Amino acid sequence: MLEHDVVFLVLKETSSYFHSVEEDAAAATLVYYMKEAGLQNLSTFPATDEDKYSGTIYSQFMTYLDKNTAPIFCISCWTSTYAIASDFAEMIRARYPRSLIIAGGVHFNSLGETEHSLYKGTFDVVFRGGGDSFLEFIKLSVVEKKLKIYKEKGEIKISGATLGKGAYYLKNRKIQNTGRGSFNRPVVPLLGVTNDCIDTRILLHDTCPNACDYCFIQPSGINCNYWASLIKWVGEFSGQVKKTYKKDVVLSLSDSAPFNKSNRKRTLDYLDMQKKNVRFDGMNVFVDPSDLDEEFYHIVEEHDINNFFIGRDRIISDNFVGRRLNGLERSSEQLDQELDLILNFMAFLNTRKNKLQNEIYIGYIVSPYESAKYSRKLIDELSGITMHNSKLTNVRVQSNLFILNPYPGTKVAQKAKGEFIAMRYFYHPYPNVWVGKNTVNIYLEVIRLIVAKMFCNNINISFYKPILEMAHSLQFQTDYNYKLIDDIEDVSLRSFAYKIIEDIFKMELSKERTLDEYLENVKSIYYIGCMVSLVINKPELLKYKNLYSSIVKEDKSVAFLMKDLNLLKEYALAGKAPVLDKYL
């Protein structure tokens, strides 16, 4: 048995079928600063690729617990991994009941979720906000031994120094502490090596003035006094890795709105300083359509930006979803103008001859209250962008559809109270948790489990359009145009599309006689979605006639989906899911 001072668990995100738990820059940064503060006996999990795979992460963690222990276990999680984090906490408590279990991460931006976790007894202490208070806690309690914290009859006892701002715990069944912690030091760059390049991911100043109703961004940023340290890190890391792998180096700026008018000067000041230290071969950035102005065109050329994630999100003004610009709801006219800005930007990029390919990823959010009119306009826009892109030779465009998620603490979650099941109960990533009577559940299931399994490569829109039309026909009960399948040029892909569309129509979704039949159909759609994801990435798999059977046999991640479907069944039987009443 290995005894550590601290065990640190990083549960940022799981995904389905062959995907893993991703690295978390914030968690990696805390690990770095804990060691810098003098913590020497620290163990982290996951550590290997097998640890990270969603299909085996539970068994791997059980094996880890058999060999490792500590008086303090720390868990960093997102909302999409909160259920897994809760299970891990239960496993730790069962094995090491005297150990403290401490949690933090994006999920706890919500005070309500923080209080829920403590009152339920899932965690002993929760840190909200930036990591300064957490790092100070580790320094005082573990390194310097000036703070003594332990559990006695289920209550937290503290002597010596006090816990800092943003540290929450229970005393006499009442929440102790208030506020949020801060963090101004540099976030440690994350390096990733792909087939094409070396990706250096940093966060500079993650703020956004738009305050959209579905967004949970909490302002965070690096004090400019620390810029020199960050620039030095980025230069050294990128140089070393480039020397080793002999690949192009790309800078990924993780800020949500780095070129918004309020953030632009700060971002440019940093990039100008960084350019003196290291010159990147390309750059990935997030950008709002409203920021695609003439000045931004010059920025793109000056800093060799070649990869853009554009948050289109909505195409018609929608008070429920709340797509905003500087706090004001965007009108339909504004949204139409933003589409023109995107199309013009695509044409501009086509004139640029970069070292790396120009790519645009356009994100859309699908609401649980979508109308047939909106669905039709969305399909037309995706097709129109494809037609526009087909005339360009130097730009690759992809679209991605996201299901609207009622993240804890957002305005959408407040407005939709009673219309969804809290995401803390779900295991499968981004589940369709909407259960209100008027939600368009079939439409969402098909989009989430098939179309949104991966980026919708607009080059293959001839493949995706028939599937989008299928989802539209199922939800709004319109006649399906099978001629769309004939537009798919690749013969094998055309046959594949025809087969999966036929299989889904044969399910007679929304006409099931029992709830179990409906839930079984959802699982079948999930497996079809796995096939779509694999085939689009590896078309050579189309030659295998038993591909579906192989996926069903080998997919260990489906256990997460089954947990979610069982929860939906429980809610339906208890009368808490009106949208599923017709299946009872």
* Coarse shape: globular
**Which CATH architecture of the largest domain?**
Alpha-Beta Barrel
How much helicity do the residues have? Answer: 40-55%
Give the low-confidence spans: 16-20
Number of helices: 18
Please give a structural write-up.
This protein has 584 residues and is of the alpha/beta class. The protein folds into 3 domains: 2-176, Cobalamin-binding domain (Rossmann fold), CATH 3.40.50.280; 185-416, TIM Barrel (Alpha-Beta Barrel); 418-443 and 454-584, no CATH class. It is 40% helix and 18% strand. The strands form 6 sheets. The protein has an 8-stranded mixed β-sheet with strand order 12-13-16-17-18-21-22-23. It has a 7-stranded mixed β-sheet with strand order 3-2-5-6-7-10-11, with helices on both faces. A two-stranded parallel sheet has the order 1-4. Helix 3 packs parallel to helix 4 (82-95), helix 7 (227-245) crosses helix 8 (264-277) and helix 16 packs across helix 17. The longest helix is centred in the last third of the chain and has 23 residues, at 515-537. The protein is globular and about 75 Å long. Mean pLDDT is 90; it is low at 16-20. It comes from Denitrovibrio acetiphilus (strain DSM 12809 / NBRC 114555 / N2460). This is Cobalamin B12-binding domain protein.
